[in-house]
Inverse folding.
C-alpha cells in the first residue's frame, strides 16, 4: 500500500527515500490496522498497563536536600564533598540562624540608638525561644554553639563556668555594653551571701576570679593563676563592663562605661568600624562586613551610615549535639533525635521572629529572620504539586482538545470526543511514566512535580492532535483502512519528533546537576510512554470513533444516533474499465480521485441521478442507521425530471447555507488555505519575513551577550512572604560567606614552611577579608605555634626561678611551666618517649617559627586537649582526633609525663571570610582564584581543596556553558543524522538544523533581554528547544518534500496540510504550561513558564513563517 516503484511510468525522484519511508509507513499502517481490529482489547490492556505503572507514584521519593539537588555530580567537587563528609561525618558543624534589620524607608541610616535597641529586643526574644520534645524542654543554651573550656580540677566550678560561658552570637550589639543583655545567663547563679545574681551586664570575669580566690577562697592560688592566664590569653578580661552604652541613661549602665559620666550620644558608625569583639576578644572577632550592610564611609574609612544590621545565632550540628551530650551528660541522644530537636527549635524561632516582625511594623525599621530549616521547609512546599493547578490545567486542555476537533456543522463527522479521550490517554501515560521512574528509584524534586506534568502533557497532546487531524481528513478512505492510513501518514512525523525530544532530554542530562538530571531522565521516559500511547492505544480509540460514525452516532453524545433517509452512494467502478490500465487498483476509490454521485432511493424503487449517465459503479448502500451493504452495480439511468433536479439543487443549497456554515470561515483550515498560504506566496511578504527574522536573529545575538550566569535565591522563595523580604535584604546588604581550605594527608611536621606559604597565598584573593596589614586571619598551625611559644615562655620563667629542674617540678611551679617541661621532654620516639635531659637543649618552636618536627604530634595532643578555646577558634576540625590527655601535676612519670602522639593528620581546615560576593561573576572569579592556589600547591606536594557554600553551589557555573554547548551540538548532530538518514535528504536536514539554531539563538537572546540568568534550569530549556523545535519544523519539511509542483505551490500545499496541527500543537503545549504562571514561586514563573512560553512562540513563528519562506527559496527537490 505504502510501497511502490518509482520506475513505473516517467516518474523521477528519490527512490531510496521513498522505499525507506514506505517500509516505516507500512509497519505503522499494520499497527494501526491491528489496533482497529482489536480496538477494545488494545484500549483495555493499554489502560491497565499504564495504571499498573502509575502505582509506582505511591513509592515516590521526594528529594528536598539542597546539596543533593544542586551540587554538581561527578568530578572533583563530588569527591571533595565525599572526603569531607567521610572525615567529619553527617551532620557535623554548626547552623546559622540569621536576624536582619532594615529601615522601612530605603536609604535611611539605621545606625541609631533606637534601631539598635530594637535589634536588641529581637535578639533577646530569639535567645528565649524554647521547644518541648518528649516532655523535655530545650533552650537555646542547650542547643547553641559555645566555646569549649579546658578541664578544671575543681569539679564544683565546672557547671558554674559552663553556665557563664555564653552562646556564640555574632552581633553588632557586641560593640556596646547592651550586647551583654543577650547572654544572660537565664539560670540564676550566685556566690555571695547577698545572693547577688551573676549576669553578663555586670560581670567582670577577672573580677569574678578575684572574688572566688580572695573573697570566697573557693580554689587554690595555682588553679586561680591557671584560669586567670587562660582568660587573659582568650581576651576574656572585663567582659562588657568597659564598652560604651547605647543608652547611657540606662540605670544598669556600668560606671566603667566610657560614656557613663558624659552621657554623650555615641558615634555608632565609629564604634562598629573594623567590627566588634565578643566576650573572648582574641577568638571572637566579628568583621564589620558581617554585622552591618550597605555601609558608607568617609575618607578616613570610618562608617558614617548603614542600611542594615545582622545578628547570627550559631547552633550545634546534629552530630556535635549528639557527641556533646554523650560526653558530658552521658545521654544516649541519636543524631536523628538531635536533628528533630534542632529543627523544632528553628521552626519556633521563625515563628517568634515573624511575630516580632509584625509587632514592629509601625516602627522605623523591620526585623526579618531566616533559618536553614525554614529554607528546607520552603523546598518541601516548593516540591508539592498543586492539585488545583493540575486540575485546572488538565480541564483547560480537555476543553481545548474537544473544541478544536469539534465540527459544529456535522455532529456525526465531528471528533471532539476523540480529542477528549486523547488528552485523558496522554494524562495516563504521563502518570505511568512518572510511576515507572518512581519504581526505578529516580528521586523526584520541585521541577519533577511542578513542571513536568504540564510540559509532558503539552508535548504528548501535540502528537495526538497530528494523528487526529490526519484521521479527520480521511473521509474518502474506506472505514476499515482509516486508522491504518492515519497512523501511517502521521506516524513518521510523530516518530521523528518523539525521538528528538527523547534525545534532547537525555542530552540535557550531560549537565551534572542531580535535580536536572533526574528531571531530564524522567522527561525522556515520559516521552517514550507518550509515544507508545499515541501510536498504539490512541489508534484503537480512533477505531472506536470510526465505528461510532458508521453507526451515525453523535460526537460527545454517542448514546444518540442520527436518523437519515435510505441513501445510496455510488462511485464508478474502474475495475470494469477496458482501458490500458494494467496496475491493480485500490479496492476503494476516494472522492479526491473521482467524485461520488449521490442517489436517493424513491418509494417505487427507482434510483434518481442527475443527468443521463450509464456507468458501472461500486455502490455503498445505507438502508437504515445500522444496516450497511456493499455491492457492484451496473447502472443505466435516463434523464431525470426537472422536479427531482430542482429538489436536489435545493437540498444542496440548504446544506451550503445552513446556520452553522459560517463557522467554517473561522477555522484554521480556512485561514491557512485562503489567507495565510496565499499571503506567504507573495514576494513582498517573503522579503518582509526575511527582514523580520534577520532582525530577530540580530536581537537574539545581542541578547546572548547580555546573559549573565546565576540563580537568585529570591526566585526560589515565594513572593509576599517574610522569607522573600529577608532574602531580598540579605542579597542587597550582605554578601558574606565562610570558606575553608582543606588539607589532606601530608607530612605536616616537616612541611610547615609550605603550609605557611599556602596560608599566605590566600592574601592574593581579592574577596578574602584581611587585616589592615593585608594579612589573612590566623589558622590552626599559627594558633598551635603561638601556644607552644607561651608554654616555652612559662617554662623559661619557672626554670629561672628554680621551680622546674631537670628532675621535675616543685610545688610552686605554674601549670603552664610544668606543661612546658613535659612538652620539652617528649622525644617523639615510641621506644624512648621521655628524655628529661633535653629540656634545655631544644626549643618547642625554633627562631624561624617551625615547631620541632620530631615531637610535632605529641605537642598536637597537648594543644588540642589543653587550649580548647584556641583549638575551637581555629575551626581546624583536625582528623583523626587526638586522644584525651590532661596536664596533671602527678609526679609519676608514666601517668603525668608521657603524651601519646596524635595520629598523622588526614584532614584539617583553614577558615577564611569572603565578602563583596554580590554577583555570580564575583563568586566564580573567587572560585577560580582559590582553585588556582590549591592547584599550585597540589603540584608542590600539598594536597588540598576549597570547601564552603560558594564552591558547593556555584562551581557548576565554571563549566556550565561548556556543558550546554556540548549538549546542544550533540542534539543538533543527532537530529541532522536522523533526518538526513530517514528522509535521505542532506539538504532538508541542513535546513531543519539551521531553523533549530535560529530558535535556540533567539531563545537564548530572549533570556538576556528579559534579564533571565543562565543556570542549570534554563540550560535544560535551551537544550530542549532543539527537541521541541523539531515539532515545528519536521512536519512542514515532510509535507513540502512529499508535495509536487514548483516551490511556491509545494509551500502552499505544506501549509494546507500542517498549519492546523502545528498551531493546535503549539496552543496545546502553551496550555500545558500556562498554569505555571500562577505559581507562588518566581523560580517556576521566571525560569520555566517564561522560557517555555517564549520557546513555543519563537518555535511557532520560525516553523510557520521563516521555514516556509526559506523552503520557497531554497527548499529541497520533491521526492517524486
Amino acid at each position: 500500500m505504502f510501497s511502490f516503484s518509482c520506475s513505473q511510468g516517467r516518474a523521477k525522484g528519490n527512490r531510496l527515500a521513498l522505499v525507506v519511508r514506505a517500509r516505516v509507513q507500512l509497519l505503522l499502517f499494520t499497527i494501526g490496522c491491528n489496533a482497529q481490529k482489536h480496538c477494545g482489547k488494545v484500549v483495555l490492556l493499554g489502560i491497565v498497563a499504564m495504571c499498573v505503572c502509575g502505582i509506582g507514584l505511591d513509592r515516590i521519593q521526594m528529594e528536598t536536600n539542597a546539596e543533593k539537588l544542586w551540587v554538581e555530580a561527578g568530578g572533583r567537587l563530588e569527591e571533595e564533598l565525599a572526603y569531607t563528609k567521610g572525615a567529619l561525618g553527617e551532620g557535623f558543624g554548626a547552623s546559622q540562624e540569621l536576624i536582619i534589620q532594615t529601615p522601612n524607608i530605603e536609604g535611611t541610616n539605621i545606625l541609631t540608638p533606637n534601631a539598635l535597641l530594637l535589634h536588641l529586643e529581637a535578639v533577646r526574644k530569639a535567645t528565649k525561644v524554647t521547644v518541648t520534645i518528649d516532655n523535655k524542654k530545650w533552650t537555646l543554651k542547650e542547643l547553641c554553639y559555645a566555646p569549649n573550656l579546658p578541664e578544671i580540677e575543681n569539679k564544683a566550678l565546672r557547671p558554674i563556668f559552663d553556665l557563664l560561658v555564653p552562646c556564640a552570637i555574632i552581633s553588632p550589639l557586641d560593640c556596646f555594653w547592651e550586647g551583654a543583655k543577650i547572654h544572660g545567663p537565664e539560670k540564676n547563679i550566685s556566690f555571695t551571701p547577698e545572693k547577688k545574681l551573676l549576669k553578663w551586664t555586670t560581670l567582670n570575669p577577672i573580677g569574678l576570679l578575684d572574688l572566688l580566690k580572695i573573697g570566697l577562697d573557693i580554689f587554690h592560688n595555682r588553679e586561680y593563676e591557671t584560669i586567670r592566664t587562660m582568660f587573659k590569653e582568650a581576651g576574656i578580661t572585663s567582659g562588657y563592663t568597659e564598652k560604651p552604652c547605647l543608652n547611657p541613661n540606662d540605670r544598669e549602665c556600668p560606671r566603667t562605661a566610657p560614656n557613663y559620666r558624659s552621657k554623650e550620644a555615641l558615634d555608632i558608625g565609629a564604634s562598629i568600624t573594623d567590627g566588634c569583639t565578643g566576650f573572648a576578644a582574641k577568638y571572637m572577632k566579628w568583621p564589620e562586613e558581617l554585622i552591618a550592610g550597605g555601609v558608607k564611609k568617609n575618607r578616613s574609612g570610618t562608617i558614617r551610615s548603614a542600611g542594615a544590621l545582622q545578628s547570627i545565632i550559631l547552633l550545634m550540628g546534629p552530630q556535635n549535639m549528639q557527641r556533646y551530650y554523650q560526653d558530658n551528660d552521658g545521654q544516649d541522644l541519636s543524631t536523628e533525635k538531635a536533628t528533630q530537636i534542632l529543627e523544632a527549635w528553628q521552626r519556633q524561632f521563625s515563628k517568634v521572629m515573624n511575630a516580632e516582625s509584625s509587632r514592629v511594623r509601625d516602627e522605623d525599621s523591620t526585623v526579618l529572620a531566616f533559618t536553614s530549616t525554614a529554607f528546607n521547609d520552603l523546598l518541601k512546599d516548593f516540591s508539592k504539586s498543586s492539585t488545583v493547578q493540575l486540575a485546572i490545567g488538565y480541564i483547560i486542555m480537555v476543553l481545548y482538545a474537544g473544541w478544536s476537533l469539534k465540527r459544529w456543522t456535522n455532529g456525526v463527522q465531528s471528533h471532539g470526543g476523540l480529542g477528549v479521550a486523547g488528552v485523558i490517554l496522554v494524562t495516563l501515560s504521563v502518570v505511568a511514566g512518572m510511576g515507572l521512574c518512581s519504581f526505578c528509584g529516580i528521586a523526584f524534586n520541585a521541577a519533577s512535580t511542578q513542571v513536568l506534568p504540564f510540559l509532558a502533557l503539552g508535548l504528548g497532546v501535540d502528537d495526538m492532535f497530528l494523528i487526529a487531524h490526519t484521521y479527520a481528513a480521511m473521509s474518502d478512505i474506506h472505514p476499515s483502512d482509516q486508522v491504518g492510513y492515519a497512523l501511517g501518514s502521521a506516524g513518521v512525523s510523530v516518530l521523528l519528533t518523539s525521538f528528538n525530544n527523547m534525545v534532547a532530554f537525555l542530552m540535557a542530562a550531560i549537565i551534572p546537576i542531580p535535580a536536572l538530571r533526574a528531571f531530564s531522565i524522567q522527561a525522556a521516559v515520559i516521552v517514550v510512554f507518550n509515544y507508545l500511547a499515541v501510536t498504539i492505544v490512541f489508534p484503537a480509540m480512533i477505531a472506536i470513533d470510526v465505528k461510532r460514525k458508521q453507526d451515525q452516532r453523535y460526537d460527545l453524545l454517542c448514546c444518540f444516533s442520527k436518523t437519515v433517509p435510505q441513501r445510496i452512494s455510488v462511485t464508478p467502478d474502474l475495475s470494469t474499465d477496458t482501458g490500458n490500465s494494467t496496475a491493480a487498483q485500490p479496492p476503494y476509490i476516494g472522492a479526491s480521485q473521482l467524485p461520488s454521485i449521490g442517489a436517493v432511493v424513491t418509494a417505487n424503487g427507482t434510483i434518481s441521478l442527475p443527468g443521463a449517465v450509464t456507468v458501472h459503479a461500486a455502490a455503498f448502500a445505507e438502508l437504515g442507521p445500522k444496516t450497511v451493504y456493499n455491492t457492484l452495480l451496473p447502472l443505466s439511468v435516463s434523464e431525470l425530471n426537472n422536479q427531482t433536479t430542482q429538489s436536489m439543487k435545493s437540498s444542496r443549497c440548504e446544506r451550503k447555507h445552513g446556520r452553522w456554515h459560517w463557522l467554517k470561515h473561522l477555522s484554521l483550515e480556512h485561514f491557512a488555505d485562503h489567507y495565510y498560504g496565499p499571503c506567504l506566496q507573495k514576494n513582498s511578504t517573503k522579503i518582509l519575513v526575511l527582514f523580520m527574522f534577520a532582525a530577530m536573529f540580530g536581537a537574539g545575538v545581542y541578547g546572548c551577550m547580555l546573559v549573565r550566569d546565576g540563580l537568585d535565591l529570591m526566585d526560589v522563595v515565594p513572593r509576599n512572604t517574610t522569607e522573600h523580604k529577608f532574602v531580598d535584604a540579605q542579597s542587597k546588604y550582605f554578601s558574606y560567606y565562610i570558606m575553608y581550605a582543606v588539607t589532606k594527608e601530608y607530612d605536616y611536621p616537616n612541611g610547615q614552611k609550605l603550609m605557611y606559604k599556602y596560608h599566605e597565598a590566600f592574601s592574593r584573593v581579592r574577596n578574602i577579608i584581611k587585616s589592615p596589614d593585608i594579612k589573612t586571619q590566623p589558622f590552626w598551625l599559627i594558633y598551635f605555634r603561638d601556644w607552644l611559644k607561651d608554654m616555652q615562655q612559662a617554662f623559661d620563667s619557672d626554670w629561672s626561678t628554680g621551680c622546674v629542674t631537670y628532675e621535675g617540678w616543685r610545688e610552686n611551679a605554674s601549670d603552664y611551666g610544668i606543661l612546658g617541661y613535659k612538652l620539652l621532654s617528649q622525644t617523639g620516639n615510641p621506644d624512648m618517649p621521655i628524655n628529661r635531659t633535653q629540656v634545655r637543649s631544644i626549643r618547642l618552636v625554633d627562631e624561624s617559627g617551625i615547631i620541632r618536627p620530631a615531637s610535632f604530634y605529641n605537642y598536637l595532643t597537648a594543644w588540642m586537649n589543653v587550649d580548647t578555646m584556641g583549638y575551637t577558634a581555629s575551626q581546624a576540625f583536625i582528623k583523626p582526633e587526638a586522644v584525651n590527655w590532661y596536664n596533671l601535676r602527678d609526679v609519676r612519670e608514666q601517668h603525668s609525663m608521657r603524651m601519646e602522639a596524635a595520629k598523622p593528620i588526614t584532614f584539617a581546615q583553614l577558615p577564611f571570610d569572603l565578602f563583596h560576593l554580590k554577583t555570580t561573576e564575583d563568586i566564580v572569579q573567587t572560585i577560580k582564584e582559590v582553585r588556582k592556589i590549591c592547584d599550585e600547591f597540589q603540584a608542590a606536594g600539598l594536597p588540598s581543596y576549597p570547601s564552603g557554600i560558594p564552591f558547593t553551589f556555584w562551581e557548576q557555573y565554571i563549566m556550565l556553558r561548556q556543558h550546554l554547548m556540548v549538549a546542544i551540538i550533540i542534539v543538533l548532530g543527532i537530529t541532522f543524522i536522523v533526518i538526513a538518514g530517514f528522509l535521505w535528504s542532506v539538504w532538508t536536514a541542513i535546513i531543519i538544523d539551521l531553523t533549530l539554531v535560529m530558535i535556540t539563538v533567539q531563545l537564548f537572546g530572549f533570556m538576556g533581554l528579559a534579564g533571565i540568568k543562565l543556570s542549570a534550569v534554563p540550560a535544560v530549556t535551551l537544550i530542549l528547544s532543539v527537541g521541541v523545535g523539531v515539532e515545528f519544523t519536521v512536519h512542514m519539511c515532510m509535507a513540502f518534500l512529499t508535495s509536487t509542483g514548483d516551490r511556491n505551490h509545494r509551500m502552499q500545499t505544506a501549509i494546507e496540510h500542517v498549519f492546523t496541527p502545528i498551531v493546535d500543537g503549539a496552543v496545546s503545549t502553551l496550555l500545558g504550561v500556562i498554569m505555571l504562571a500562577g505559581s507562588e514561586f518566581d523560580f517556576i514563573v521566571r525560569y520555566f513558564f517564561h522560557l517555555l512560553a517564549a520557546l513555543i512562540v519563537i518555535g511557532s513563528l520560525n516553523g510557520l513563517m521563516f521555514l516556509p519562506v526559506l523552503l520557497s527559496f531554497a527548499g529541497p527537490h520533491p521526492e517524486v
